[in-house]
Amino acid sequence: MNRPIVYQNEVFRSYDVLHGWRDALEGLAQLSSDAMFGSATPYAVVTGLQPTQTTTPSLTVNVAAGAIYQIAAIDPNGYGALTGTGPTMLLQGQYAGGTLTFSTAGLSGGQGQWALVQGQFQFDDVIPSDDPNAGVLPNGNPANPQQPLNGPGGSGLAQNTEREGTLVLQVIYGTPATQGSEAPPTPTSGWVGLYLVNLVYGQTQLTSGNAMPAGPNLTAADGATTGNYAQAPFLSGLLNSHHGGVPGQAPKINLANEVTGVLPAANGGTGDIVQTAFNGPTAGSAVATMPAQASAYKKVIIYFNGYENDTTSAQTYTFPTPFTVDPAISLNTAGAAGAFTIGLSGITLPANSSAVYSGWLALEGY
Fold first, then answer.
1. Is the pLDDT of residue 120 over 50?
2. Which of 148, 223, 282, 329 could form a disulfide with 310 if both were Cys (CB 3.0 to 4.6 A apart)?
3. What is the pLDDT of residue 94?
4. What pLDDT score does 99 carry?
5. What is the pLDDT of residue 202?
6. d(CA 48, CA 169)
7. 287: closest CA among 273, 307, 304, 306?
């Protein structure tokens, strides 16, 4: 992160002060981008902004404080003594909380309409409420240096003294249509879709459930759906992030490629759990499966249900993932262990015998 250099006895320049503050903003913007997206291309994400019903239900909703992180140019219209535009980076805009009011004025009997709450990062130059001079700044007075002028040239005019990064919220409406067939509006270019609210003719109040985070396959009370609508990019946060692979969440984990030999998957290894069924050549049946297939631990389970094979042709269960070392029998309620031929890559079931096998057989190892 860059910093300006100021020397002893130098006449201080506003250029140096403003460059230091812009450099700090650029550093924080880069940190936000690296922390949230790494080497991936950043996109807008939002936090907070939970809508709730007003004390007296109406078409107005309360919106909690929140923030947006969105790609935007730093100081597009200059910044005091800095006339140039800064780089385009991931900037934070804050929303202090407030209310939004919806309208059904454009609806006729039997019609419905989707409303979209959209947000955008914007710079806003203001005079803070606690500014001790109310924005009327002391200016140098060449004629009498001991007596500063009030405002530019002694005009007494107030000037903005703070540049805020803000999140601006806006409500736009879709085209009215017969209830159940209305389609949600597309976010305005440069804006981010946040919440969808379905409105119907004659409606006079909203509940908290009426405002749904924008996304695909939402269904309103009148049956209208959102189809393949873009997911609102609400950021889950580092401590409660979900690997859903949607905007604002971590990517989905590929169990087959990312955890093989490191962590057991839901089935203790790779791939899906597949059961292999055998009909006994003489009678009964058997079902075999390999629920654990990790490099550090493997397990095979076979259940015999009156299995009998009086023929000379043996049946073999081939392990989906071979063992590295010959497995051990960890459970056997099926019959004589010596009747089974066990290897690294499979097990041969008993044959050429009138013995009947019923129960469990489990093999474990790695």
1. yes
2. 282
3. 97
4. 96
5. 93
6. 13
7. 304
C-alpha 218/C-alpha 114 separation (Å) is 11
Nearest-angstrom CA–CA distance, 269 and 259: 9
Question: Phi, psi at residue 258, to the nearest 5°?
Answer: -100, -25
Tokens of 301: 């389970």
pLDDT of residue 271: 47
271's tokens: 């791939």
Residues with Cβ within 8 Å of 360's Cβ and at least 6 positions away in sequence, in order, are: 301, 302, 303, 304, 331, 332, 333, 334
Reported as a pLDDT band with limits 50, 70 and 90, residue 337 is: confident
Strands, sheet with 341-342, edge to edge from the N-terminal-most edge strand: 316-318, 346-348, 341-342
Q: What is the 3-state secondary structure (H, E, C) of the chain?
A: CCCCCCCCCCCCCHHHHHHHHHHHHHHHHHHHHHHHHCCCCCCCEEEECCEEECCCCCCEEEECCEEEEEEEECCCCCECCECCCCCEEEEEEEECCEEEECCCCCCCCCEEEEEEEEEEEEEEEECCCCCCCCCCCEECCCCCCCCCEECHHHCCCCCCCEEEEEEEEEEEECCCEECCCCCCCCCCCCCEEEEEEEEECCCCCCCHHHEEECCCCCECCCCCECCCCCCCCECCCCCCCCCCCCCCCCCCCCHHHHCCCCCCCCCCCCCCCCCEEEECCCEEEEEEEEEEEECCEEEEEEEEEEEEECCCCCCEEECCCCCCCCCEEEEECCCCHHHCEECCCEEECCCCEEEEEEEEEEEEEC
Show the domains of the chain with their CATH numbers: 14-213 (no CATH), 276-365 (2.60.40)
Does 127 score more than 50 pLDDT? Answer: yes
First to last CA, the chain: 51
